[in-house]
TrEMBL record:
One Pfam family per UniProt: M16C_assoc
Organism: Chanos chanos (Milkfish)
Subcellular location: Mitochondrion matrix
Signal sequence annotation: none
GO MF, one annotated term: metal ion binding
Name this protein carries in UniProt: Pitrilysin metalloproteinase 1
Cofactor field: Zn(2+)
Record domain Peptidase M16C associated: where: 187-434
Subunit structure: Monomer and homodimer; homodimerization is induced by binding of the substrate.
Keywords noted in UniProt: Hydrolase, Metal-binding, Metalloprotease, Mitochondrion, Protease, Zinc
Amino acid sequence: MAPDPTKQNTLCISYLLGDITDTFEAFTLSLLSSLMVSGPNSPFYKALIEPKIGTDFSSVVGYDGSTRHATFSVGLQGMAEQDFDTVKQIISQTIDDIITSGFEEERIEALLHKIEIQMKHQSTSFGLALASYIASCWNHDGDPVDLLKISENVSRFRQCLKDNPRYLQDKVQHYFKDNTHRLTLSMSPDEKYLVRQAEEEQQKLQQKIQSLTDGDHRDIYEKGLQLLEAQSTTQDASCLPALKVSDIQPTIQYTPVQMGSAGGVPVQYCEQPTNGMVYFRAMSNINSLPEDLKIYVPLFCSVITKLGCGEMDYRQQAQRMELKTGGMSVSPQILPDTSDLDLYEQGVLFTSSCLERNLPDMFQLWSDIFNSPHFDDEERLRVLVMMSAQELSNGISYSGHMYAMTRAARSLTPTADLQETFGGMDQVKFMKRIAETEDLTTVLRKLPRIKRHLFNPEYMRCAVNATPQKMTDVAAEMERFMGNIASNRKERKPVRPHIVERSLDPSGSVECRKLVSEPHFQPCQMKTYFQMPFPINFVSECVRTVPFTHEDYASLCILARMMTAKFLHGEIREKGGAYGGGARMGGGGLFSFYSYRDPNSTQTLTAFRNGVEWAKAGKFTQQDIDEAKLSIFSAVDAPVAPSDKALSRFLSGITDDLKQRHRERLFAVTEKDLIDVAGRYLGIGQRTCGVAILGPENESIKKDPSWVIK
């Protein structure tokens, strides 16, 4: 998967730092680490990433306070072996440079602003995140309460800088320059690695087998039978404390929203206790974008906020974003319709947040990105492309099941086909090709063309979550922002002929979602095998079923959860030896089976089929159904942060009424419903299904003409 086969080496240097129970020192070192490696203004980014010696930082980078003595690591991946010494010299030189010149005051302010935002932003896992933040230190007898006094630590940090302007440089001198306790780790690939590993394993196995007596053989065989019996018996879970389905609230809490408009663009206002933060989102459809440019959309989204804009180059832009916002991003969105599988919305989502006092600055940054993004720095684009391609190829071994599910689904619905283009193996291969391209000027020239179609207020809608007291200011800033970007507004003809309009407002007054309909889409059966350089498989089978509002959707959700817990987990993980496996029902109407890091390939497809037969035969109890319902409700009723309230309504048009109806259907699912949907949708030959496997060379699949080998 590497863009350059000669550059697949990694070098990383780790330094041993102080004891994590010294909480203020640990806090300082963690800040220092961010200043050294985070973002395009950091010294190590400038010294290691920008010269393009490698593709990205090594997979472990920065401060790690999870052990008694903290460590700091820095290095490069995607580099040539002959550059090892150069990189060591660069790291050493960069440390010297930091000691000499220190850090700009504005960068330190940006970092402290980031901490302020982290303290104000309420995530649904806030408590859990705090608990894991204090766990390591507390385990080693540190004071957990000291760790939580973040504001005090910030004040003390500011005081230390005031008392000694060279405070941070002295720390770098002590922990990096004068510190001999360091480890240099280099990793180089070996084409015969897997073969050698298999040979060594085989030799070891033979030695062990040869030393076994007849009694040992019998013992192993009997233990194997005992294990199989243990795996096949149903455990008695009645001794465990459990919720009942009747404990679940029958109705949901409704979230009030107000619909308005700014400069002719529909805006959803949602008043929430956001703790002094403002959350902004805008969705813009890409219906007018020419087909040949579609595959470039994810790349465009990942670089558009990182190339510079207005009067600022990319470094100044990054600094300004850190100083004034909680982050700004653009991401591709493919949203299936809730009632028709051949209808979907395609677009990009703009997301950002800021402290209330920085609202005008945040919208000014968006205005600059809309009106005058920079598309002239080929070297900067190359750095971003290399990092992106490296990230995608690294991600396959971690998220292979997601890639397998995306590919298995591609021939079943128009939404899934586009998902494969934007985020599947097609995108991975495309980015590899771009990263291998010598001259990126043709790619650069495409970016302004894409921008014209994506940054068009004519096809936008916005959503803001903020406190009630701030909404008037937000509305005024929105008007100003829309006035600033009005020159980008232009009516353009959609590429696909069938466009269906949907409203965000239940009264139907604001028709602002323009969905693409593909009435002639023909789902087809497809089996794809991707040969990969790792010894495990990721297996998936997807079946086209029904959309979110269909009466059978709830039954399929419960069936997927129950089949996972009561059948597939036992077959695929406990007996099959995979890391994981199961089934899930997706909002796009696809019922997906999957396995994760699986030693088997086609046997797992048999396990999927057996799971369907198990469900059709009704080999489950009422308790199994109730457990599956509780499990589904734990996801349905998962807390939603103030920043994300009413988001599904804004994006997919899923109103509280639709959620309540889905909830009632989940409660009503019976044993008969589950047996019925298993037979009607998942039985052999009932519906169109797709299959995909990512895995090592497979002789039996190679000989089978029904598979497409990639």
